[in-house]
């Protein structure tokens, strides 16, 4: 009996010892896993911080380029340094690239409620792109400051389950909220429109052929692009005279105040993007109006 009891006690002690080993092993594995996870998380945060510093650095570089350009020239055209972009530049662990776009090469949708000329041009742009103009009353209702519905396709609170803005668009993606618009309509318009916070002119030295064709009928598109690329226009009058294009000069310019800076940083398999809207005044001072940072 005593021997049997001794064997039972030894078996119990062995079982307890095995349980202690299992528990200790589990704890050790958990600690190691958490340590590896923490190291990876720390590395990820470090990479994001590094990418953000680089992308914002590119934004600062863009602002310097724009300041210098203002000092060197009173016009803005596609043959200037700001329009050339930065090819892929390597650094330890990755590379970065960036470029500037003239936002006044695009049609400012916020202008259609303050200018009949701008409204006519936007209607023509829609026609040329095959976009149904029924979106325009809803767009105007979104931007204007009153609650009066524009017929036949206007858009005010009583038509929707959410309130409309009744202010200028802050971003063109707001158009996807409009009554009657389809995603494919938005995608057609997207490359040629912008949403700027103040009235702005179209720059005849940087606008695309599609935007040029919205200025009026009978414009010679090939001649326009050839003239613009070979010898940028030094005034709106020069633009009209050289093309013999009977067009309203309202809302046109040969200079730009609003630019968008794009930057991309690649670190390993991760890509970090920057998009910044930059305003430049007549003295060359620059202000970042909005900035978007993202990882893709």
Overview of the structural elements:
With 296 residues, the protein is an alpha/beta fold. It folds into three domains: 1-31; 50-104 and 256-295, Pantoate--beta-alanine Ligase, Chain: A,domain 2; 107-253, EpsJ-like (Ribonucleotide Reductase Protein R1, domain 1), CATH 1.10.40.60. It is built from seven helices and nine strands. A five-stranded antiparallel beta sheet has the order 1-2-7-8-9, covered by helices on one side. The protein has a two-stranded parallel ribbon with strand order 3-4. A hairpin with a 2-residue loop joins strand 7 (258-267) and strand 8. The model has no long low-confidence stretch (mean pLDDT 85).
Outline the secondary-structure elements.
Layout: H1 2-72, E1 86-91, E2 94-102, E3 107-108, H2 116-129, H3 135-143, H4 183-189, E4 193-194, E5 202-203, H5 209-213, H6 221-230, H7 236-243, E6 252-253, E7 258-267, E8 270-280, E9 286-295
Parallel strand pairs: 3-4, 5-6
Antiparallel strand pairs: 1-2, 2-7, 7-8, 8-9
> SSE order, as H and E?
HEEEHHHEEHHHEEEE
CATH class category of the largest domain: Mainly Alpha
Number of strands: 9
Which strands sit side by side, in order, in the main sheet? 1-2-7-8-9
Query: What overall geometry do the principal axes of the alpha carbons give?
Result: elongated
How does the major sheet shape up? 5 strands, antiparallel
- The CATH superfamily of the largest domain is EpsJ-like
Number of domains: 3
Distance between the termini: 73 Å
Instruction: Tell me the CATH topology of the largest domain.
Output: Ribonucleotide Reductase Protein R1, domain 1
Average pLDDT for all residues? 85
CATH architectural category of the largest domain: Orthogonal Bundle
Q: Give me the number of helical elements.
A: 7
Structural class: alpha/beta
Q: In percent, how much strand structure appears in the residues?
A: 15-25%
